[in-house]
Amino acid sequence: xKIYTSPEQVRPRKPHVxxxxxxxxxxxxxxxxxxxxxxxxxRRDGGISxxxxxxxxxxxxxxxxxxxxICTTDQKVELIERAGVxxxxxxxxxxxxxxTSAEDFVRQILLGKLGMTDLVVGYDYALGKxxxxxxxxLQREGERQGFSVDVVxxxxxxxxxxxxxxxxxxxxxxxxxxxxxxxGRYYQIRGEVQHGRQRGGQLxxxxxxxxxxxxxxxxxxxxxxxxxxxxxxxxxxxxxxxxRNPTFGENTLVAETHIFGFSDDIYxxxxxxxxxxxxxxxxxxxxxxxxxxxxxxxxxxxxxxLAREEAGEDKLKQT
Length: 319
Description:
This protein has 319 residues and is α/β, with parallel strands linked by helices.
């Protein structure tokens, strides 16, 4: 997939250019319907498929409260590429871009830079200053300027419309099964392994890999999770505690993960953690011994969950 980080980088286009546009936070199953439409269209008619998104997310610029994102820009790029899109334009978003009218965005970027012939958007999408460029506007512009507009209806799972807003809410509630059903994959946190207090291995007998969670990040519900850990292209089972470690009176928000059957030194190395199930709430124990007993129970349950998950994945691969 070719990636542009500014409209100015785009060069003259092929005759047929199918475009979809959105913030695409999480690249959930609803977003994937849009990518599928543009990819299928160019496979049928020739040309290239293009996704257009923004960085930072517009609400990071426009909203005083900002927004806690489901995935990083790097994750978003990976997932869009996995969807089979030919090119990705990441438009830098600032106050000047926010002031761009819908008419100018269509004329200058979508038509002028990309040479768009087809546009695919979600049912609730709107672009331009004050979000006046809704689907009705885009369809009128398409008729006037000679591009087709395909409005994709809401995508539902278990009777609920899949949306980034709903997924953020589910993540904050620790409802990882529901999150998985809407993302089409596990919710994942990423980071470099940090040095901790060394209690996991030395005091408790369960060494942990620690990832710092920033206050502005989308933090799952605090507690203990069954996890899959991806390191150096390999996948391991694990249990993760997300929280502030109240047993030892700490206040730093961190994800501490005990990786099953793993003993490598990975300080400073990148780690990816898939959250499968929320097992229990984080709580303060009377002391290290009580915490060790609970960790053993958590590991026992986690191994059962992982075994069922692996069996389910194997079954899916066979069908």
